[in-house]
Amino acid sequence: MQQEPIAALTVGAVARPPATETLRGVVNSVDQSQNIIEIRLSTDREEGFKVQDGLIFDAVRFGDPVTISVQTISGARTIVRLLKE
Fold first, then answer.
1. Are 69 and 22 in contact (CB under 8 A)?
2. Nearest Cα to Cα of residue 57 among 76, 75, 74, 82
3. 69 near 20, Cβ under 8 Å?
4. Angle, alpha carbons 38-39-40 (nearest 5°)
5. By C-alpha distance, which of 62, 81, 65 is closest to 73?
6. Is residue 16 classed as helix, strand or coil in its secondary structure?
7. Is the dihedral of CA 56, 62, 64, 66 positive or negative?
8. Could you tell me which residues are beta bridge partners of residue 37?
9. DSSP at 53
10. 51 vs 72: CA distance, rounded Å
11. In the chain, what percentage of residues exceed pLDDT 90?
12. 59 phi and psi, to 5 degrees?
């Protein structure tokens, strides 16, 4: 009598969370209609980031020093966490 396997193991790709990058800068502009916050990262570098949680717009203003955690989500660099300094 041959026994059936109880469970088969499937070997495949393991889903990994997106890599997170932590950056510090100053809020340069807030564009809620486009869902973007532009951060001045250094004297010669500014970058616009998508915002994952719209409540962030209520927390920041031009000139606020911030630390942000960024992930690439659907091809766009996106703020997933923001702390005012």
1. yes
2. 82
3. yes
4. 125
5. 81
6. coil
7. positive
8. 30, 49
9. S
10. 11
11. 71
12. -100, -15
